[in-house]
Amino acid sequence: MSAPSGTFQERVDKALGNAQLKVALERTTGNARRKRAAAVEAWPDFVAARAAAAAIKDHSIAHMAYYLEMFERNALASGAQVHWARDPDEACKIVVDICKAANARTVTRSKSMLGEEIGLPHALAGAGIRRVETDLAEHIIQLAGETPSHIIWPAAHRTREDVAKLFDEHHREKPTAHDVVSMVGSARKELREDFFAADVGISGANFLCADTGAICTITNEGNAELTTTPPRVHIVTAGIEKIVASTEHALQLTRLLVRSATGADLTQYTTFHCGPKRPGDLDGPDQFHIVLVDHGRTEMLTEMPEMLRCLRCGACLNHCVVYRAIGGHAYGGAYPGPMGSVLTPVFDGLEQTRDLPNACTLNGQCRQVCPVDIPLPTMLRHWREQSWRAGYEPKTLRAAIRLWAFFAARPRLYQLAQAVALPAMRLFAKGGWISSLPLASGWTAARDLPKPPGESFLTSIRKGGTP
Amino acid sequence: MSARNDIFAAIRKARPEVAAPTSIASEAQACSQAMKRTLPPLDASDLVGLFTARVSAEKVGATVERVARLTDLPGAVARYVATNALAPDFALQPDPRLQQLAWQDAPGAELRPGAPLRRDTALAVGLALGGIAETGSLIFHSGAEAPTLYGFLPLHHLVALDAQTLMPLLEDYAVFASGLPVPRNVNLVTGASGTTDIEGVLARGAHGPGNLHIVIFN
Ligand code: SF4
């Protein structure tokens, strides 16, 4: 598995030059946007629902210590073992130690973004433990030796033709045909044995329910339950911000999470896991471990508490003109798109990652579709200001400008980005000239940009006038 | 200091807890109520109709059949086996209410319940604890009479659902569950397994059942 390499600028250049990538991204995100739009239309009060969802998350964040203690108490009472980790190294060590204590040779894993965030795949490989990814998309990218490029569709960058090639090459029994259904069938066959050969199953969690001590997973393939039920040991890794007061709050948030992610009313499998096998149970793990990870979240309580609301639904990625142009790998972190550009500087440091908040058109689409109303553009601006203040910005032309060039060459996308970005750009204008446009930081540091006219060039031409 | 203590200290520094548990609880309650007020209206007078419409909608993709009572389940299973050209052996969820049914009397097929659940089981027959009309979800609580894997291993999952156990909303399930012991697994199952991982195109039967058939009885 290789993480994306090179500078942000190099990765952007590479992505923009990859026509195949654009096709794959548009197929997946286009489908997602259409389905989300239909689901939201069927909920007339969706705007109020978003505010209510934000309030539910804010409630658990405001009382985080209280609810985490309650969660821990209830989880322990169910027979679970609860572990705490300050950072990725601690978290990975806990997981690897549990695997070693269980003499684990093979672990199955169902998709978990936190696992990617803390580098769990690497840690398992380092410990000589065979890891089998069981989510279809994770399976695809494991075969390709890649990292996820989308938080809901990790293989969003791969076309069906790519998948056919990978399965032909790696599956013990090759797919009978190369249509999507046959290839899904082939993966089903391929992974079946592994579900039962695994010693340990590792999952993430969408919610930690304080009232019961249960963790909730929301999946669609059934691989999560096949990952967590047959092995002797189930390990959950979760960020502490996943805490919610109750099962009821978890379900209420799920309603918005799922609509925003896939447009469904509820994903196929909403499962609550509470402790190990009980007396009389015919299946279930003998040990149930929950590893709770901080990794910057307690700092976010002060710095950017709204970001702790994030449900990891992926809607902001699907609606981001930049993500749709460059895909997830260009971002270089576990989380791409607008939410990734906010989170990655928290995890990896702003100096290393300041290109991310700069690569944004500030068109505001991400906030509009966010089911918990996270002010993503405000937070990206916050990072830009921080970066300026810390003196991280160089004086040369950077990746952000190259992105502008990309959009300028594609009038329809450009317009979309412009329509909402223009009012924001004018805020930086003084006397007809922009002297410090954060997006074009490198550019404007060297020369002033003319202030945008009231309407964009293309809009006014369409209306029959001249700009 | 231990990681646990460090993390709690950091949280408490940023968010000193001043509220009493009772006021936190009423705040939590107010949050749920506020969300409920935003929900699209739902006609709770015909939960079976609502559930059926949801669950057979294309995006959920299950099939539904109505029978008079639970004793009609063997007949429904026989019809399902015939329609789908399945073998008459099937895995039966170890719930006494299912096990005592007159399987051998089902017309048209010599049904053989009680095959062990295996990784290549074609058909498993189960009984749901309840259903949620809003989403078209089946409720399972794991236990000796309801092992988790019955809902995940077979290619076909046929589930009996008592119409009396239908509830309108997810919130109603939360209230219902709060009166029961917390099981190891709660499985809310909404339609057959599916994936959109290849180009966003839906394909059924990714790892779980590719077909979900629900038999609603009174
Ligand atoms: S920031 Fe909002 S839209 Fe983006 S993944 Fe998180 S919850 Fe979804």
What this model shows, in words?
The complex is a heterodimer of chains A (467) and B (218). By secondary structure, chain A is α/β, with parallel strands linked by helices. Chain A has 2 domains: 8-299, Rossmann fold, CATH 3.40.50; 406-462, no CATH class. Chain A has helices at 8-16, 19-41, 46-62, 64-77, 88-101, 113-117, 120-126, 136-144, 160-170, 180-197, 223-228, 247-261, 297-303, 315-318, 321-326, 337-348, 350-353, 355-358, 365-369, 376-389, 399-408, 411-426, 441-446, 457-462, and strands at 81-85, 106-109, 130-133, 200-203, 207-209, 214-219, 233-239, 243-244, 269-273, 287-293, 429-430, 433-434, 449-450. In chain A, the strands form 3 sheets. A 6-stranded parallel sheet of chain A has the order 1-10-7-4-2-3, sandwiched between helices. A 4-stranded mixed sheet of chain A has the order 8-5-6-9. In chain A, helix 16 (337-348) runs parallel beside helix 20. The termini of chain A are far apart. Mean pLDDT of chain A is 86; it is low at 420-467. Chain B is α/β, with parallel strands linked by helices and 218 residues long. Chain B has 2 domains: 3-37, no CATH class; 47-217, Rossmann fold (3-Layer(aba) Sandwich). Chain B has helices at residues 3-14, 21-36, 47-56, 73-83, 96-99, 170-178, and strands at residues 63-66, 89-92, 112-113, 123-127, 130-132, 137-141, 156-162, 166-167, 185-189, 194-195, 203-204, 211-217. In chain B, the strands form 3 sheets. Chain B has a 6-stranded parallel sheet, with helices on both faces. In chain B, strand 5 (130-132) and strand 6 (137-141) form a beta hairpin. The longest helix of chain B is centred in the N-terminal third of the chain and has 16 residues, at 21-36. Chain B is elongated. Chains A and B meet through helix 2, helix 3, helix 4, helix 8 and helix 10 of A and helix 1, helix 2, helix 6, strand 9 and strand 10 of B. Strand 9 of chain A pairs antiparallel with strand 9 of chain B. Iron/sulfur cluster binds next to helix 14 of chain A.
